[in-house]
Design goal:
Layout (H helix, E strand, L loop, with lengths): L4 E6 L3 H13 L2 E7 L6 H14 L7 E3 L13 H4 L21 H5 L7 E4 L4 H9 L3 H4 L2 E5 L15 E2 L6 E2 L1 H5 L1 H8 L5 E5 L1 H4 L3 E2 L1 H10 L2 H10 L4 H6 L12 E2 L2 H9 L4 E10 L11 E3 L8 E8 L1 H14 L2
Parallel strand pairs: 1-2, 1-4, 2-3, 4-5, 5-8, 8-13
Antiparallel strand pairs: 6-7, 9-10, 11-12, 11-13
The chain binds calcium ion.
The site of calcium ion (CA) has 10 residues, from α1.
């Protein structure tokens, strides 16, 4: 898949780390990576990305540290989901390499990047680049975004996984953290937006069977992936209790890697076109909520994932992890 050249914007994050390993295993040409604060603060996210690249011998990929805070709001780290370091289970040594001196915003706005971006964190870096350079949004032809929740998710029936402060409403984490940034991206001139939403990613589960298949590969990257994925946070333990065969079954959703899978293997997905808008109003409106704006079909027509072949995806996860060292 060397012809698939991407820039990857992320907040690693256990599930971003898995998405990165999946992309590299699939042979995607990851040209550059920018880091945004999200799951944990931007410094920890940057360190985690450096550790992963060093572990798989890909320190040649430059990493740019980006926005520490959302555009207008306070950050919302999630230590109960991914651990204090953001990448619980990895236990990798401190990196010996460092990020680039240029910030993510400055780097992205040079537009010296591929025309395809995958984004699996709050969209702050991308929004800043759109604002800083008028031609950025026209340069980017495709953006694959893990985020949003246009339909109720299957566990609690909410419109996301974060209850928006001061509101009764819910929103998906990446959009809830920086709704203004998401709104800028969805209102921009980026030609093709592909949305991989929470209501789908929550239905693709890790557990004993995949864990065993990864460990059986015997490669150090596959075992690292299994170590990360089997370190399940408190919230997922509760949310997926009914799916477990026993208490230690590491059942969890994998979220970000589904965006990479849609990039590499779109043939296993079903999609629909929806006019998506992101709420940016103040309470009682739920900022960050994903709205299907049926009154405004001209505005923001987005390709949204509806479903996928789960067995096939899990097979690909194992195959691609096996390709790495
Ligand atoms: Ca993420």
């Amino acid at each position: 898949m060397k012809d698939l050249k991407i820039h990857y914007d992320c907040d690693p994050g256990q599930d971003d780390a898995i998405a990165l390993l999946f992309a590299l295993g699939a042979g995607v040409d990851v040209k550059s990576i920018s880091i945004v604060g999200g799951n944990v603060d931007v410094n920890k996210c940057t360190r985690n990305a450096l550790q992963i690249l060093e572990f798989v011998g890909r320190s040649d990929i430059p990493i740019y540290k980006g926005a520490p805070q959302p555009l207008k709001r306070l950050s919302q780290p999630l230590p109960l989901v991914f651990g204090e370091c953001g990448m619980a289970g990895a236990n990798l040594p401190e990196p010996t390499i460092a990020e680039q001196s240029l910030t993510a915003e400055a780097f992205l706005s040079t537009i010296d990047i591929p025309k395809t971006i995958v984004a699996t964190g709050p969209l702050t870096n991308i929004a800043l680049a759109i604002q800083r350079n008028d031609v950025f949004a026209k340069h980017v032809k495709n953006i694959f975004i893990m985020g949003g929740c246009p339909y109720p998710e299957n566990i609690h029936g909410h419109m996301g996984n974060i209850q928006v402060k001061g509101s009764e409403g819910w929103a998906e984490y990446n959009f809830a953290v920086d709704p203004e940034a998401a709104n800028i991206v969805f209102s921009s001139d980026i030609k093709n937006i592909f949305l991989i939403p929470l209501n789908v990613t929550r239905t693709i589960l890790y557990g004993y069977a995949v864990d065993k298949a990864l460990r059986d590969c015997g490669t150090k990257a596959a075992i690292l992936a299994a170590d990360i994925l089997s370190t399940v946070g408190e919230e997922d333990h509760i949310d997926y209790a009914s799916e477990k065969t026993d208490q230690s079954d590491p059942v969890r959703a994998m979220h970000d890697v589904i965006a990479m899978a849609y990039l590499t293997n779109p043939e296993i997905f079903e999609t629909e076109r929806l006019p998506i808008r992101v709420e940016i109003g103040e309470p009682p409106l739920a900022a960050g909520q994903t709205l299907i704006d049926n009154k405004n079909f001209d505005n923001g027509s987005v390709t949204v994932i509806k479903d996928l072949n789960r067995e096939k995806f899990l097979e690909l996860l194992v195959i691609y992890m096996r390709q790495l060292l």
